[in-house]
Amino acid sequence: MSRAIELREVSKRYGDTYAVRRVSLTVEPGEFLVLLGPSGCGKSTVLRMIAGLEDITEGELLLGGEPASDVLPRERDIAMVFQSFALYPSMTTRENIAFPLRLRDPSTDHDDEVRTTARMLAIEDLLERLPAQMSGGERQRVAMGRAISRRPSVFLLDEPLSSLDAKLRGHLRAEIARIVAELGVTTVYVTHDQAEAMSLGDRVAVMRDGVLQQASPPRELYARPANVFVAAFVGTPRINLLEGVVHAPLDGPMALDLGRQRLCLPQPLTTDHQLLRIQQGRPVIVGLRPEAVRIGPPSQARPGEAAIGGIVEHVEYLGHEVLVHLNTGSRRAVVPDLESSRPAVDAGPARPARRPWIDRALHRVNSVVVSRSSAPGPAQQPAAVPPERRTTAAGDLVLRSGPEHRVRVGGHVPLLVDLERLYVFDHTGLRICPAPDRMPALHT
C-alpha cells in the first residue's frame, strides 16, 4: 500500500553549511514526484533523508502520517534505486532480485515473485546472468527489479538513467513511467534532466542551493514559473532572459526598454501589465519563450503583439523546426547557478567590442520598427543600461520557427512578440508578470 511522504521544515547541515534548508513538501499516496535541479542543489540529500540514509538536522519527516525521522531505514518500507546500480557482482539476476525477499522471509521460495518482476521489466532471459555479463541498461533494469520485487510503499530513484546513453534513457524513461503507474506506488525521482522531469512527474519540485523553489505540475511549472531560476531551468531551448527597464509615463503607453528597442504594451493594459506600473524606472528581467516570438512585419501583427527587429546570428535547422539566434541590441540577463557572469576583458585587436556592421544594421532595423510603432519619444535608447554593458554580437534572442522560413546569417528580420506570453521578473528574480499567485507586500 502506498504512503504519503511529508517533509516539514526539513534541513540538513554539515557543520555550518546547509545542504538543504527548510524544505516543506508533501507527496500524496501514489503520486510520482520529481526533484529537479542542478548538481549540488540538495535533491539527492532530500531523497537520502527520506530513505533514512542521512539524519535530519532540523524539521520532521512523516511517512503515512506517522513521524519517521528516527525510524531505522529497514523499517521504513522504502526501496531505493541508485545511480550506480549497486548490484551484488557475485549474484545472478535471479539472486539479486530475490535478495530483499530472502532477507524478509528466508524460509519461502520466492521464484514466482522473481519471475513476475522479471516479466514486468522484460529481463526474463537475463535471470541466470551475472552483472558483468550485462549492459548498463540491463543492469539498471535488474536494479529496479530488486527494488520492485518487495512491493514497497515508497519507491525512491536517484538519477537512475544518468549514466546511460540518450537512446536508452528515452526507452527506460517510458518503461519507468509504465511500471510506476502499474504499481501505483508513491515515487520520488531525482534528476537534473528537465526533459525527464517534465515527461515523468505528476509534479516537479525545483530546487536551488538547498532551497525548494516551486513544486507544480509540469504544465504549470512551464507556464507560470515562480521565479527567474525556474523559468530558465525548465524549457528547451531555454527562455530568453533580457535586462529591461519599465517605462510607465502618466500621459503615454507603458513600455519595456530592452537596450536599443522597446516593447510597447497594448492599450488598454491587462491586469498583469497594470501591475508593472509600480516598477516604474526599475530594472527588471524580461522573459520570452522561443515560441512567443515569430518572424513577421509590423503590418501582420495580431492584437497583443509588439514589433521589434533583429539580425540573424546563427540558424539551427532541426528538420521539423528551425531555431534562429538573433541580435536585437539587448543584454542577456545572467542567472546564477545556470551560468557565470563574464567579466569585461580587453578583447584585443582581433575582436572589437561589437562588430561595426551589427551597429549599422541594428540602427536601420530600429529605424523601421520605431517608425511603425506607437513607442513614445523620438529615440529608442534606454537610459538605464549603459552601452558598455550591452551584449556583444553573440546574440541575445532565440526564436522557434517552422522550416518554411528561410533566413540567412546577417539578414535583417522583423519580429513580432506575443505580449500575452511575456514574463517579467523583479530585481530579486520573483515573477511579477503574469501576476504571482500570492501578491507581495508593498513596502513604503
TrEMBL record:
Per the UniProt record, the source organism is Streptomyces polyasparticus
UniProt feature, compositional bias: Low complexity = 370-383
Q: What Gene Ontology molecular-function terms does this entry list? A: ATP binding
Q: What is this protein called?
A: ABC transporter ATP-binding protein
Superkingdom in the source lineage: Bacteria
For this protein, the record's Gene3D superfamilies field holds:
2.40.50.100, P-loop containing nucleotide triphosphate hydrolases
| SUPFAM superfamilies named among the record's database cross-references | MOP-like, P-loop containing nucleoside triphosphate hydrolases
Q: Where is this region: Disordered?
A: 370-390
